[in-house]
Amino acid sequence: MNNNVFAHRGYHDGNKNVPENSILSFKRAVKYGYAIELDVHLLKDDNVVVFHDYNLKRMCGVDKRIEECTYNELLRLNLLNTKEKIPLLSDALSIINGKVPVLIETKMIRYNGKLEEKVSKIIKSYKGKILVQSFNWKSILWFKKNMKNISRGILMLDAINNKTISISSMTIKTFIFDLVLKTNFISQSINSFPNKYLALKRKKKKIIAWTIKTKKDYEKGKKYCDYLICENMEKFY
After folding, report:
1. Which segments of the chain are extended strands (E)?
2. For residues 156 and 175, what is the distance between their CA atoms, to the nearest angstrom?
3. On the chain, which terminus has fewer CB atoms closer than 10 Å, C or N?
4. On the CB side of 175, how many CA atoms lie within 13 Å of its CA?
5. What is the enclosing helix (H) or strand (E) of 224?
6. pLDDT of 106-140, one tens digit each?
7. What digits encode the pLDDT tens for the residues 9-32?
8. Vertex 119, ends 226 and 27: CA angle to 5°?
């Protein structure tokens, strides 16, 4: 098992034949021994599905927010040019079946706690290792209060190359959130390394870098981080 590498949205192939966040991508990750990073949304009918975008257009060709759909509506759609469907989180975990760790990112347009509640019910009886992360600090606070034993982390914006968010605003606020949330790990863009703040935090908690797509970034990530969220892993070794 590649213990320090998470396959980004499963071990997909750049969405050619194995779409991201598909059952096929999770099976492939398990086959090659990669931990799995995946994203979850709450549907209109309270089902939790694995999908990254807020809109279905890029992956399914339909210009509609995923949170406005029911699961039955999603079953009519395919992921890109394949026969793969958008999977339920419960189905994805059934396939993974504890064979590799799973890092779940919670995604929502507006926070209300419902997604976290539904996810918690799904993972409560799961036997494998699960971690949760989010850009939304309220989501992580929910898990801190309600699932104290689960490993949780805050996702941070790129502290160096993000053109729209200044270091003195969102980044500093996120660091403060981390102090309040008492996270187990920090998940930060690979473009932000090296980073003196994260180097200090690494003495007390794990640091995860995303998203690594080149051997150069892979080597940098190994130097400054504990875990790496990657694509194109076959090119790194």
Report:
1. 2-8, 34-42, 48-50, 102-106, 130-134, 151-156, 185-189, 206-212, 227-230
2. 8
3. C
4. 13
5. helix 215-224
6. 999 999 999 999 999 999 999 999 999 999 999 99
7. 999 999 999 999 999 999 999 999
8. 60
